[in-house]
Amino acid sequence: MTTQTNPNQATDKSLEAMRHFSEQYAKRTGTYFCVDPGVTAVVIEGLAKHKDELGAPLCPCRHYEDKEAEAAAAYWNCPCVPMRERKECHCMLFLTEENDFAGEKQDITFEEIRTVTNQG
Amino acid sequence: MSAASAVTDATFKDEVLESDVPVLVDFWAPWCGPCRMVAPVVEEIADQYMGQIKVVKVNTDENPSVANQYGIRSIPTLMIFKGGQRVDMVVGAVPKTTLASTLEKHL
Which of A29, A65, A112, B12 has the lowest tally of Cβ within 10 angstroms? Predict the structure, then answer.
């Protein structure tokens, strides 16, 4: 069992900021986290990592030819345009009630996230 | 042991395009939530169709050339290659039945 930080993880500061944002945004939009908290955890870590690297929480569930240009364009910065317009989050961070994978939670702790993402 | 082996920009041609059997390619990224959900499905497919197809995965962060070449946008994206050509594609965390029925069309 190792406790060393995964070099691919975000800073604690960005992770906490994105964790807090995710909870607030789920409550505000009436959406829920995935029944598998591992999905929620890796997406929040990915958003925080992009916030560190690019200055914006670019969606971690897409591939970009140029991440800096995409972050500047802002379309896929979380909450992305499809989420804001139609509550569509293909990353499965914010799920509407009728989604088969929607859980009952709108909260996740910092420790819950890192327990998942420490495993690489 | 993982049934789906990792393929890179450098090995994609040999492992996928020049394969004698159809190849299922799982394009994924480390901090993509739905990729975590589809990974076990891909492993099950690899076991179930062992000998009939090859199953590989490409980390799009580490292998941007292949990802760009095939126009990967939303991930996970699952592509089926046969005879060096892309013949089908499924986007998102799909159930095993969906992936299996897509695959069956090309066996």
Answer: A65
Are residues B37 and A39, on separate chains, in Cβ contact within 8 Å?
A: yes
pLDDT attached to residue B58: 97
| Domain B5-101 belongs in CATH node 3.40.50.300 | no
Cα maximum dimension of chain B: 32
DSSP tag of B78: E
Q: ipTM of the predicted structure? A: 0.91
Going from N- to C-terminal start, the domains of chain B cover 5-101
Convert the pLDDT of each residue in A62-84 to its tens digit. 999 999 999 999 999 999 999 99
Helix, strand, coil % over all residues of chain A, rounded to 5: 50, 5, 45
Which of B9, B31, B57 should be substituted to probe chain A, the one whose Cβ sees the most A Cβ atoms within 10 Å?
B31
C-beta separation of B55 from B46 below 8 A: yes
Q: How many CB pairs under 8 A join A and B?
A: 66
pLDDT (tens digit per residue) in A8-47: 899 999 999 999 999 999 999 999 999 999 999 999 999 9
The token duo for A103 is 């859980």
Burial class (CB in 10 A: 0-12, 13-18, 19+), B37: buried
